[in-house]
Amino acid sequence: MREFSYHRPKSVADAAKAFGSKPEARYLAGGHSLLPAMKQRLNAPSDLIDLSGIKDLKGIKVSGGDVVIGAGTTHAEVAHSAEIKKEIPALCVLADGIGDPQVRNRGTIGGSLANNDPASDYPAAVLGLGATVVTDKREIAADKFFKGLFETALEEGEIITAVRFPIPEKAGYAKFAQPASRFCIVGVMAAKTKSGVRVAVTGAGPGVFRASDIEKALSSSFSASAQLPAASAKGLNSDIHAGADYRAHLIGVMAKRAVASAG
Amino acid sequence: MALPNGIGASVRRVEDNRFITGRGTYTDDINRPGQTYGWFVRSPHAAAKIKSINAKKALAMPGVIAVLTGADMVEDKIGGLPCGWLVKSKDGTPMKEPGHPPLAVDRVRHVGDQVAFVIAATREGARDAADAVEVNYEPLKAAVDATAALKPGAPLVHDDVPGNLCYDWEWGDKAKTDEAFKNAAHVTKLKVVNNRLVPNAIEPRAAIGEYDRASDRYTLYTTTQNPHVIRLLMGAFVLHVPESKLRVVAPDVGGGFGSKIFHYAEEAVVTWAAKKTGQTIKWTCDRSESFLTDAHGRDHATEAELAMDKNGKFLGLRVHTVASMGAYLSTFASSVPTYLYATLLAGQYSTPAIYANVKAVFTNTVPVDAYRGAGRPEACYILERIVENAAREMKLDKTEIRRRNLIPAAAMPYMTPVALQYDSGNFAHNLDVGLKAADYAGFGKRKEASAKQGKLRGIGLSTYIEACGIAPSAVAGALGARAGLYEAAEVRFHPTGTVTVFTGSHSHGQGHETSFAQVVSTKLGVPFENIEIVHGDTDRIPFGMGTYGSRSIAVGGVAIVEACEKIIKKGRKIAAHVLQTTADKVDFEDGVYKDKASNKTMTIAEVAFTAYVPHNFPHDTLEPGLDEQAFYDPKNFTYPNGCYVCEVEIAQDTGEVSIASFYAVDDFGKIINPMIVEGQVHGGLGQGIGQALLENCVYDQQSGQLISGSYMDYAMPRADNLPSFNVSTTEVPCTHNVLGVKGCGEAGAIGAPAAVMNAVVDALAPLGITHLEMPATSQNVWSALQSANKKAAD
Ligand SMILES: Cc1cc2nc3c(=O)[nH]c(=O)nc-3n(C[C@H](O)[C@H](O)[C@H](O)COP(=O)(O)OP(=O)(O)OC[C@H]3O[C@@H](n4cnc5c(N)ncnc54)[C@H](O)[C@@H]3O)c2cc1C
Predict the structure, then answer these.
(1) B778: which chain A residues are within 8 Å (Cβ-Cβ)?
(2) Which residue among A178, A230, B49, B638 has its CA within the 20 to 30 Å range from the CA of B152?
(3) Closest CA relative to residue B554, chosen from B446, B646, B484, B469
(4) A103, A105, A134, A136, best to mutate for ligand 1 pocket (most atoms within 8 Å of CB)
(5) What sign results for the dihedral spanned by CA atoms A35, B46, B200, B225?
(6) Contact criterion met (CB < 8 Å) for B654 and A40
């Protein structure tokens, strides 16, 4: 890790201001993606602006048919939230399957989304449930937020403040974990929402994507016995843990499991 | 009356208190006055020429003290890292031992090879400066896979080693074996790869080099399993410093699994640099570095054939193995795929003719050396896999084919055709116990139940034997070892009756401080609490060959017993003097000396006190003090053996393998601490299962970059990958050591891979699958299922 200056602002506005005044600033949330990268010197910010002192970024609210989760909410808080369990149990399942207890106690939903690791879990929830990413500047629809490998629609210095999930009729999440990292080889969120069926796949490709063929098949019958079309291996990732064809196959298996578990 | 906490008691480990409360003292916990920090510049290439090194920028950075390179070592006439075992090719020529400079000179040969050493006031400063050292490389083509490296035209790892061949060695009777194959009713063939592993001790390696100008003495604190061996190798071969001027301390060490046996370049560099720069220098490896520099394990490719008569009786075994050595010969690398491997190919069977040919090959990868089991897991895996394939081909039950071939207990001691003499063991009994525990007979029902849930179920066995307690020096010497393999101990009574034991064994997780104290408590009748075990410091311990090859209790423990015997003998003389009788009339039992005639007694503590307060000792016949040393060289290896039974379930939709049950029956001879032994078995099984299902060291075949270079890609076994183990022991005492012990450290890692993979293949066999390489990841199993289904459809 290289040397850096550390700041701990109390408000979103102060954080944004601090960010703007430094040459190579970075926000710090749970630090569970950023700090490992800094330790390996893949990342060497001049200034770390710790968001953990900002109260406005914390907490879970249910209102008007939405579940709103503050960007600084940890995976463990989501996993154990009784309110979320009632409205979108699939989100609890997802959060509970991220990393290990230490990671869940530190890592945040905002950090995970801003990072947009192609094998991470949350992007599947945001895209699959048709959520809205709320920032200090604007609101970004899920379909516009993810831009592929570690890229998002966030602009330089823009802060995610919350994520708004419309409560679906039903949703389920299933993950096939990579044996070493336990990130996703394939993670599928399948949801029956007011605006139709949405199926989002993470881990399989260079970024989270919607599986439109499977959405179509599930639109006529959102059930585990529905005949799902085979996913194509084209464009999917291939590495020492799983080839593209295996990932394509797993998309089908995980989609079925997600639907079967939907609640 | 015997004391509690003696031999056979499950005494809680005394060392755990400091370990689990964070009070252990590991090398990195030690901070010496004025200490500076070192960081290595390492090669980013698998193979390259070093055209130039420019340290100007680095030297100008704040706090930077020095940047040292291979050229500086050459100038100081520093030697290369030695290999401790000479293996000869079948034509009689000695193995190729290319130079192994501690800092590269002109060439780098694997990603991670040491190129320069930066010393600075802080660790991060040293690292910053290391980044600023400019090395101009001319990248070369790399030889990565060992089999490919043997092919004509493959890039050469060392210009002076033609064909990358270190040696082409053979063992066993070739003519007799070929003859057996001629007479065979059936031959089973199997090609297997023993996957390369990264050891991953929880504590990364570290070293502190210190030099005292006043005494002209060096001290090296290091993460080693055998400080005296490091002192010898580093002193005599690398730095040319006499042992008397060199102290090596191995304080608490957080796991080794073999990877901390070897003398590593970093140890020599920090020690040499300490004198050269006048600084005390600490180097601590980070995890990424440890993936790139700790010696790896396994990495064999083998073709095996088993000849049988029509009844499935084994007639002969022929094995051809290609073993990767990596870029240089690590300390014991040459012995692993030879004397620790081919000598075990008889296993538990009475196969009369065995022949093995092993080609050891240099590749542009991290050196490969002993890793938990070292050679014996590879032998066990080949043998136990081929036996179950043979059973399937001969339409015999996997237990029946074993029963027809197991060496009967009555045949002990048994001489195998690969030069080992098994002293004891009741293999058929272990098999019976294992099958009963695992309810082998009920497997069919469980398979049906799994099938109802869409799962394939398989059962696999492994009947392993290993040669441990390494080893008789005479045997090792005859086979090319350049060191003896005895162990040393000193037992010192203090005047008030407490005892300090100095052992040449080293504990890095095994619990010696507990089990050795139990042995001494029983032997001397001293309360367990009054016994202190000291290890890991060449200035305190008389001598030592260290801990590996499950040798600590079987060699180090016996050395302690021998020293205890000398103590008892000396004490008897003192007691006789005090009790006014002669030594032959004095009995010793449970810590009490008794004059048989008068029934007068004296405790050993009283004897010790007298020994140090010898007011009326007769000068010429009785020496004061009670402090004895012993060196113990065993007569033979010990032969732990057992039977493992594993059941797996395979999910057909994902290919995921899960272990449904695992039963281990081990014969470790006499057991000192059942709890510790159980823990050792659990750990070994965890590593064996890790190898079978998860762990895989993967290099890019073109570039030689380590792809599985972190925990993001190297899958370590975790608790939820493992079943709740059912372990038990059968005790057939070793016949040639006084404790009757055989050792238990490696068994699990040796026996488990074959049991798991036999279960996996058993589950897949109905689909026509006869083999699957380790690790049986879901991807690998799914691919096998896909091709089997495709074949069935065609
Ligand atoms: C051992 C381990 C296992 C893991 N396993 C999983 C897993 O199975 N699945 C999974 O999905 N993830 C996994 N993770 C990643 C984990 O979930 C991370 O916590 C998460 O990806 C990042 O969240 P964070 O709060 O730690 O962010 P940080 O690491 O602090 O930051 C990550 C990035 O986001 C930026 N950032 C943070 N907050 C904001 C914000 N509010 N607005 C704008 N930018 C912001 C930071 O500047 C940084 O660039 C694992 C991590 C570890 C260490």
Answers:
(1) 176, 179
(2) B49
(3) B469
(4) A103
(5) negative
(6) no
A113 CA from centroid of ligand 1 (Å)? 8
What are chain B's domains?
16-21+486-632 (3.30.365.10), 34-86+96-140+203-254+260-293 (3.90.1170.50), 141-195+296-405 (3.30.365.10), 433-468+640-794 (3.30.365.10)
End-of-domain residue from the set A166, A183, A211: A166
Residues in Cβ contact with B17 at an 8 Å cutoff, skipping those fewer than 6 apart: B23
- Say if B453 is an interface residue toward chain A (CB within 8 Å): no
Per DSSP, helices labelled H in B453-557 are: 473-478, 512-524
The last residue of one of the domains, among A132, A166, A200, is A166
Please tell me whether residues A196 and A115 are part of one structural domain.
no
B63: left (phi over 0), alpha (psi -120 to 50) or beta: left
Q: What is the rounded distance in angstroms from the CA atom of residue B20 to the CA atom of residue B237?
A: 38
At residue B1, the pLDDT reads 64
Residue pair B645/B723 in contact (Cβ under 8 Å)? The answer is no
Sheet of strand A139-141, all strands in order from the earlier edge strand to the far edge: A60-63, A66-70, A160-166, A132-135, A139-141
Query: Is residue A183 lining ligand 1, measured as CB closer than 6 Å?
Result: yes
Give B425 to chain A, closest Cα distance, Å. 38
- pLDDT of amino acid B143: 98
Structural contact between residues B556 and B269, judged by C-beta atoms closer than 8 angstroms: no
State how far the Cα of B366 lies from the Cα of B295, in Å rounded to an integer: 6
The residue ranges of DSSP E strands in B385-439, in sequence order, are 414-415, 421-422
Which residues 6+ apart lie within 8 Å of A211 measured at CB?
A188, A199, A200, A201, A231, A251, A255
Do A237 and A191 share a domain, yes or no? yes
Say if residue A114 is in the same domain as residue A126: yes
Look at residues B34, B483, B41 and name the one whose alpha carbon lies nearest to residue B265.
Answer: B41
The CATH number covering residue A93 comes to 3.30.465.10
CATH number of the domain encompassing residue A179: 3.30.390.50
DSSP letters, B338-353, are TTTTGGGTTTTB--SE
For residues B292-311, b (16+ Cβ closer than 10 Å) or e, as one string?
A: bbbbbbbbbbbebbbbbeee
Averaged in consecutive runs of 10 residues, what is the pLDDT profile of chain A (263 residues)?
94 97 96 95 95 97 96 98 98 98 97 98 98 98 96 97 98 98 98 96 98 96 94 96 98 98 95
Q: Which residues are CB-neighbours of B643 under 8 A, at least 6 positions away?
A: B427, B430, B431, B433, B434, B435, B461, B462, B463, B665
Per-residue model confidence (pLDDT) at position B538: 98
Question: A175-197, pLDDT tens digit by residue?
Answer: 999 999 999 999 999 999 999 99
For A2, nearest residue in chain B (alpha carbons) = B124
What tokens does B682 get? 């659990």
What tens digit of pLDDT does each residue of B212-267 get?
999 999 999 999 999 999 999 999 999 999 999 999 999 999 999 999 999 999 99
Rounded Cα distance between B8 and A222, Å, is 62
Residue A91 structural domain: 58-166
Asked if residue B34 lies in contact with residue B280, where contact means CB atoms within 8 angstroms, the answer is yes
Q: Residue B216 class from Cβ within 10 Å (0-12 exposed, 13-18 middle, 19+ buried)?
A: exposed
Coil vs helix vs strand at B500: strand
A162 and A204: one domain? no
Burial of B393 (0-12, 13-18, 19+ CB in 10 A): middle
CATH number at residue A46: 3.30.43.10
Tell whether ligand 1 has an atom less than 6 A from the beta carbon of residue A121: yes
Answer whether residue B168 shows pLDDT above 80: yes
Q: How many domains, chain A?
A: 3
A112 in contact with ligand 1, CB cutoff 6 A: yes
In this structure, the answer to whether residues A68 and A98 fall within a common structural domain is yes
